[in-house]
Amino acid sequence: MTKKEKKDVFNFYSSDDQEKKDSTKIVLITGGAGFIGSNFIRYLMKQYPEYKIINFDKLTYAGNLNNLTLIEEDPNYVFLKGDAANPEDVKNVFEQFSPNFVVHFAAESHVDRSILNPDIFLQTNVLGTQILLSYSREYNVERFIQISTDEVYGSMEKNISCNEYAKLAPNNPYAASKASADLLIRVAHQTYGQKVNIIRACNNYGPYQFPEKLIPVIIYNALNNKELPIFGDGTNIRNWMHVDDHCRAIDLVLHKGRSGEIYNVGADNEWENIKLVKHILKELKLPDDLIQFVIDRKGHDFRYSLDSSKIKQELGWKTTIDFKDGIKQVIDWYKSHLDWIEEIQSGEYMKYFERVYKERIVEQD
Ligand code: NAD
Ligand code: TYD
Prior knowledge:
The chain is of the alpha/beta class. It has helices spanning 18-23, 35-47, 87-97, 111-116, 119-138, 173-192, 214-223, 243-256, 273-283, 309-315, 323-335, 338-345, 348-358, and strands at 26-30, 52-57, 77-81, 101-104, 143-149, 196-201, 203-205, 228-231, 237-242, 262-265, 270-272, 291-294. The strands form three sheets. A seven-stranded parallel β-sheet has the order 3-2-1-4-5-6-10, with helices on both faces. It has a three-stranded mixed β-sheet with strand order 7-9-11. The chain is globular, with a radius of gyration of 20 Å. It binds nicotinamide-adenine-dinucleotide (NAD) and thymidine-5'-diphosphate.
């Protein structure tokens, strides 16, 4: 164990107060060292200070314990390094902690990587989910939340949104692996009666997002006078939601969602990629001339769009962060955390960045 992983796990159970022990929940967060998982851990610890949190993460290139420095010394938090796709690792965490809840974020999450190397996406996203489901059944987990994505529905024409009954039509290996995992969640409920939910969210933005996704790539490159790679003609559309609004939705589903149900979580905040990039540049008070159109992503979905009326009507969820305010805050966060990105840039990410983008650069007229 490294310094950051080391924790006296037995202190975890040290309370002699039985009432306190009964009211608390042990929550297993998988992938808690990534972007959304680390934001959710901070959110959950603030909302439920009595909960015990176990962060189970393989620490792939995208897992970064620096995302959690604010809470790493909290006695209600413990980190365990492990692979969701390795039954021994998963058994170990269930044996030690017997969690009440599982919130499953761990995944290979980047579409461009999935096009280059799909195998690891099946390993982690499909097999990893099944292994976690099996142990959750064995240990009588009270609720298993699968963090899924709008990408499982595939691309949508303009003016069309899909509800939870729309057909699954993934178009890239990442989306296919997430759709497959969603089907295994369904099976866990239908066959074994496990208490599960699936949350399908639109694109998230916020602090600690790994600098391979559009928004952090653009902010970081713009601040460093580097080219801003826009795939294709930049007219593809994404719907952007602040990660804190996603965290609130997960909290509601975990505590109040009807078991077996899928909940779409979208923000009604559509942007063409090129317009979003220009908006960020305007906020940064920088000109557009760093924009560079590059060869399009293979199978690039034109648009995702969720109908989220179910979670709004059933659980009273709505977005609370206006995008123009949220993006301002997030730009400021990245500006004041350039060292966070630079640490990442000095590692594996740079090799990946060069491999993907060097081949893609299109000569400008
Ligand atoms: P991320 O890539 O930032 O983090 C993924 C985390 O999972 C990392 O900490 C990584 O180390 C860990 N991990 C990877 N493989 C693992 C394994 N085999 N065992 C244990 N841990 C492993 O991803 P993110 O953007 O935070 O996304 C989290 C979840 O939310 C994913 O399931 C993703 O599909 C889903 N999602 C993301 C978005 C988005 O906009 N980022 C939108 C909708 C849904
Ligand atoms: P991304 O952040 O990778 O999320 P997703 O593919 O899961 O939606 O990409 C968001 C959009 O931005 C998508 O249409 C692809 C595009 N994009 C670029 O144009 N340039 C980039 O460098 C990246 C990473 C994405």
